[in-house]
Amino acid sequence: MGSSSGQSGGSYDLSFKILLIGDSGVGKSCLLLSFISSSVEDLAPTIGVDFKIKLLTVGGKRLKLTIWDTAGQERFRTLTNSYYRGAQGIILVYDVTRRETFTNLCDVWAKEVELYSTNKDCVKMLVGNKVDRESERVVSREEGMALAKELGCLFVECSAKTRENVEQCFEELALKIMEVPSLLEEGSNLKRNILKQKTENQAPPRGGCCS
Ligand SMILES: Nc1nc2c(ncn2[C@@H]2O[C@H](COP(=O)(O)OP(=O)(O)OP(=O)(O)O)[C@@H](O)[C@H]2O)c(=O)[nH]1
Ligand SMILES: [Mg+2]
């Protein structure tokens, strides 16, 4: 798909906020690291939140992705509201070798998205990670596809370890976000600056549903 990172000057056409969510240990931080730096290593559980920035070109547009990674463990999670605020894309990750991480996406994570997501058009992607451990797989590809359909998500199976489908996952999500006009408006620098000026200079427009 022709992606490249590290364009000079750090200039970009569109900027998107993308979130990673899912149970502890499913590989959210590894996925992020694998995408950002092509390196794969064992990581300690995430405490609080972290984010990384990646510049890439998708569909002829230069994109700046700010990818947020939060702790799957409840006791390490903070600031859930601001984590979700303004996200254009949400990646829901499970581990194909641990069924409870799959069922929790429905029971816990999808509900949290409903509750906190501020963009109703926000694009979601379901990701089954650790497909390199095929012999230990307990969640089939078909089950994954069915849940994605139910939740209205894109779907991909990948491995943060072998990097199989890792770039495709983020690129596909970005492409989909670019197809949603309301998300594009928020992602564009120009539009955001105009909006900012407007709200600074006058009372907020009437009839808006989002703050
Ligand atoms: N075999 C295999 N192991 C993986 C893969 N992705 C992650 N792991 C392993 O799973 C462990 C947990 O990965 P993390 O990325 O820390 O998981 P996390 O979802 O960020 O967990 P929290 O930060 O606690 O929410 C790591 O030690 C990795 O070694 C993968 O694709 N294949
Ligand atoms: Mg983590």
Walkthrough of the structure:
- With 211 residues, this protein is an alpha/beta fold.
- 36% of the residues lie in helices and 22% in strands.
- The protein has seven helices and six strands.
- The protein has helices at 28-37, 80-84, 99-116, 141-151, 166-178, 181-187, 189-201; strands spanning 14-21, 49-58, 61-70, 89-95, 123-129, 154-157.
- Strands 2-3-1-4-5-6 form a six-stranded mixed β-sheet, sandwiched between helices.
- Helix 3 links the parallel strand 4 and strand 5.
- The termini are far apart.
- Guanosine-5'-triphosphate (GTP) is lined by residues 24-30, 42-43, 45-46, 71-73, 129-130, 132-133, 159-161.
Secondary structure layout plus pairing:
Layout lengths: L13 E8 L6 H10 L11 E10 L2 E10 L9 H5 L4 E7 L3 H18 L6 E7 L11 H11 L2 E4 L8 H13 L2 H7 L1 H13 L10
Bound molecules: guanosine-5'-triphosphate (GTP) and magnesium ion (MG).
